[in-house]
Amino acid sequence: MREVAAPPPSVQLVVDSPEQMRELGRRLAKLLRAGDLVMLTGELGAGKTTLARGLGEGLGVRGAVTSPTFVIARVHPSLGDGPPLVHVDAYRLSGGLDEMEDLDLDVSLPESVIVVEWGEGRVEELTDDRLQLVIHRAVGDTTDEVRHVTLTGLGARWVGADLSVLSA
């Protein structure tokens, strides 16, 4: 007889507005701790930075969380006793992990929460433990604010995690 691994914890949510996306970030922040890597994937305008802004609010960090596209990464120190937030936008990085290594994320990871927009295929080697968020939205000429968000916890850190609390 062989042991079958349990599927990673996952939850799918429907988000109807930018404020709800921000609130999802605030709720998600309650589950995060130093050493967590969060990867955000989605089209332009899907709400990745809006979610990161909510994470910053929920973690209680200093500074407005805005898109780090032109600076690649921003560090937001904690205003309390929580971990700092390192917010990375890997959109303009084409070299994969080599360019990511220049950011020294592996050094920051143990004491920070690191959130990487456009990180798929670029940061997976940092750690086996990560939370992946995929945000789907209607594309084309639409004013549809609805987003479908899939959160999946990978690695030992997330085994047994109850991600369903995020839908509350």
Give structural attributes:
168 residues, alpha/beta, 7-stranded mixed β-sheet, 7 strands, 20% helix
If you had to describe this structure to a student in words, what would you say it looks like?
With 168 residues, this protein is of the alpha/beta class. The protein is 20% helix and 25% strand. It contains four helices and seven strands, in the order βαβαββααβββ. It has helices at residues 18-29, 48-59, 97-101, 105-108; strands spanning 10-15, 37-42, 73-76, 85-89, 113-117, 130-137, 147-154. The protein has a seven-stranded mixed β-sheet with strand order 1-7-6-2-5-4-3, with helices on one face. Helix 1 crosses helix 2 (48-59). The longest helix has 12 residues, at 18-29. The model has no long low-confidence stretch (mean pLDDT 84).
Number of helices, counting only DSSP H or I runs of 4 residues or more: 4
- Largest sheet report: 7 strands, mixed
Strand content: 25-35%
The poorly predicted ranges are none
Q: How helical, in percent, are the residues? A: 10-25%
- The ordered H/E elements are EHEHEEHHEEE
N→C terminal distance: 39 Å
Structural class, by secondary structure, is alpha/beta
Overall pLDDT metric: 84
Radius of gyration over alpha carbons? 16 Å
